[in-house]
Amino acid sequence: MCPLRTMLGLLLLGVLGAFPQDGVRRNTCEEGPNHSYDQTTGRCCYRCPEGHTSQQPCAQGSSDCRKQCDPDYYLDRDGRCK
Q1: Which residues lie across from 28 on neighbouring strands?
Q2: Distance of CA 23 to the CA centre of its chain
Q3: Which of 25, 41, 55, 66 is the most buried (most CB within 10 A)?
Q4: How much is the pLDDT for 18?
């Protein structure tokens, strides 16, 4: 009976250790719907609008996004695909 209690105790400790200790989910962002949690950087990053791509690994705002051109095109200084 004692080994069974020990095993159940260790199992309970393992389950409790799987939850964040501060009670806050780490994969949520409070910045709003335009942000999402990035597991690679461990931060909340701005989601660039469709047709735009981030210039940084974790964009912090719309200024970090730029228009994405189709293949064989480039973005000129005015922000137009040519």
Answers
A1: none
A2: 19
A3: 66
A4: 60
